Amino acid sequence: MRALKNCLSIIFIILFCLLLTQALSSETRGVESGQRYDRLVIRNVVVIDGKGTPPRGPLDVVIEGNTIHSIRRARRAENAYQKEEHVLDGTGMHLLPGLINIHAHIHDSRADQPLPFEYIYKLWLACGITTVRDVGSNYDKTVEERRKSQEGLIAAPRIFLYMRAWGATPEEARLSVQEMEKRGGDGIKIFGMDRDIVKAALEEANKLGLRVAHHVGVEETDAWDDAAFGVTTIEHWYGVPDAALHGSQNFPSWYNYSSEDDRFRYAGRLWRETDPKKLKKVLERLVEKGVAWCPTLVIYEANRDLLRAMNQPWFKDYLHPAVAEYFKPNPAYHGSYQWNWSTTDEIFWRENYKIWMAAVQDFSRMGGVVGVGEDAGYIYMLYGFSLIRELELHQEAGFHPIDVIQHATGNNARILGMENKLGRIRKGYLADLIIVDENPLENLKVLYPTGVTDLKDGKLITKGGVKWTIKDGIIYHAPTMLEDVKRIVQKAREK
Ligand SMILES: [Zn+2]
Q1: How far is ligand 1, taken at its centre, from the CA of residue 239, in Å?
Q2: How far is the CA of 485 from the centre of ligand 1 (A)?
Q3: Predicted TM-score of the model (pTM)
Q4: How far apart are CA 140 and CA 134, in angstroms?
């Protein structure tokens, strides 16, 4: 008898909970993942814009098709939304512009094994990324992917494709920039060229109105050249401290740049050799010339804490076996240099980070535009999750979370030349938005699609995560995207 009573009360509790959740979510209706509607109302949500201002709300944001139609105070009247067919209830949630990943690679393979585009795209969407700037991939394939994304044929972020210019002479570099424009490049990426060749490539790119991302390695050119020739962004960082040395870095005689273990080990000893006064001048010049900086702090994090990088909790369910294979130490793969990585290396790198982060902070204080990119698919960094980690590192560098959000939205849109269409929650802007269950300003970790653990009434709960990712007015249920990724990974592992 007692068992029956217990059983009945459990059933009653379950029914009650079901009714309660229905009542609470009753205002989310008429929405289905993967759809775009003529009119969609996101109601009663707190808005964090991409312009560096504090949250405001509760507001209603009305989307028509792929555009933000209006923003108004949330309605209080009981039947205010009765006539609306498609409503997303944002009660207790935060609405942000979709995150932009300014340094991405749409890899079609890793470790000589194919990698499905769907895997990367759904990781990005699950993490709230609605736009990526690809700075190196299989261009013909990516041009096609960009079209499919534009036309809403695939679940994927917007794609901007910056194609790499090449050339052993200035003339070849000019021709290659012209060729990349014809092939459909939205911009140009340059990397590993001598000064006169960089100059020629940039002259040609400026003539054609193409923006330029410079992965400035340890090479003949440095930040002074980027300022002089007019690049749009410095990717990563090497050329900044290089420009603040007197002469070259203090490399050992046996150092070989082509050996990646040498390269990354001694990169960890670069910032400490800079002359602070000269560094300040370098940063000032970059700001003066309007060169933005996309530091990709996250992609080097393994260097200061290898075990952390190797054991990220999302690897368990979401690390594709091809990517896992690529991450293993292997001289054949770029970025897979972690054999004999030492305590000493990590200590040098920790100091390296401190000086680097302070430089990024100084650059911003002087008026420089800082962007957010992940460079995932290398060095234990998983697509999407790494961009959220990059946000955390920007906070560690001393930025307020409001400014960190701006880096990934308003600033990145500016870098793309899309500041009048993307990166803000504003009438007439494209409807690229994310709805987050919790306040990311309180803890940026709530942006991880796996959420965060909290204690509620003595019990551990999981909360947070992006709930809806809206790209070009198409709404995607982020947890479903993540579930799809899990299935792709499971299937690949079975093989
Ligand atoms: Zn890259």
Answers
A1: 15
A2: 23
A3: 0.93
A4: 13
